[in-house]
Amino acid sequence: MNKNIYILPVSATFRDIHYPDPIIRNPKDLESKVKTKFPSFKMGKSLSASDKVKVFEGTIDKQKVVVKHTENTEPKLPVDYLIMNESHDAEVRVLKRLATEQHIRVPQLIENMDKITTLVMEDLRVDGFVNLSQLILKKNINMKSAKHIGSSLAHLIQISREWEEFKTNESAQLSFYERSLEMLLAYPNDLKRHKKLESQFTQYAQEKEEQDKKPRHFVWPDSHPKNMLINKNGEVTFLDFGRCHWGDQNYMLPNFLAHIVLYSLTKHIPKSKAIKYAEVCIKAYKDIEPIEDEGIFAQYLAMELFHSANGRFVEGITKKEHKISAQSLGLAILDGNIKSIKKLIQLIKKAK
Ligand SMILES: Nc1ncnc2c1ncn2[C@@H]1O[C@H](COP(=O)(O)OP(=O)(O)O)[C@@H](O)[C@H]1O
Ligand SMILES: [Mg+2]
């Protein structure tokens, strides 16, 4: 059980900390290390935007593969924190657990080179999978994916609910801190609502006897279009599980849909299509898993809008109009104290 609930003191970032040297210094180094296991390995181009997690395409005996290497992500600002390369272990564990599931597809692991926190996996593009974010940015969302993503997220929840808690790199508290900061800045005086949402997100019981009422489950908080690949039929593959935690599983669907809403504000998806997409996705999800608190759903979605407007970099969210409209919709949701998905959709329809 991960009891490490506290955020690293931000002052630590100012101290002259010497973090361990990287395990792998450059792509050539990675290639030669993978070659020790697979002599015919050839590395191709990079698939990742991040500088610390390095994802490359490549081949082994002409078979296309993807290689993902994880280093520590060091804090650069006082509000940042260290993300340990141990996220590799969590990712491998999740990929192994989901490998044989009928209703969820994840990349098949070919080799876990855990000494160099590197995994070799199948290249899903061979089977016609394309990154959903790239499709959206080309204004070419596949509407058939709505149903598949809704039901796969619900299946992920159901399946992982049975899992015994294992060590993850991050706690729900840390994850909430990162994701909610911009919302907190928008409402500095509304600590009560903030604390309530934190307690929901983390499912952290202050009192021991409350723990049964707040069971924590597996959460994949990076459930966004960049981490989903879809094929022509709209079937989906989920990726990138390193930053998972134990907390409230209800976060995953509104987090995903916040991106669909965001891309409707930027006009990458026409508004009417985005609404339809969200409705189909929610229905497919609800056919498997209930949404018990639609007010929380709305708050999670708003939280992600604030975060995407002012915190995390989201591809395609570049102009000031994009940020303002995401922020404005976030404010409208929280000011309106929205308690139902129906009302939420009405607000989204009106948003500009
Ligand atoms: N097995 C795979 N097959 C095809 N593409 C992949 C595969 N794994 C990752 N990718 C691509 O590489 C990108 C980065 O991989 P990801 O695991 O999300 O790392 P990160 O986001 O931490 O850089 C993904 O957005 C996806 O487009
Ligand atoms: Mg990713």
Q: Can you tell me about this structure?
A:
The protein is α+β, with helices and mostly antiparallel strands. Helices cover 41% and strands 13% of the residues. The protein has two domains: 21-71 and 83-122, Phosphorylase Kinase, domain 1; 130-350, Aminoglycoside 3'-phosphotransferase, Chain: A, domain 2 (Alpha-Beta Complex). Helix 4 (145-160) runs parallel beside helix 8 and helix 5 (172-186) runs antiparallel to helix 6 (191-202). The mean pLDDT is 92. The structure holds adenosine-5'-diphosphate and magnesium ion. Residues 47-48, 50, 53, 55, 66, 68, 107, 121-125, 131, 226-227, 239-240 line the site of adenosine-5'-diphosphate.
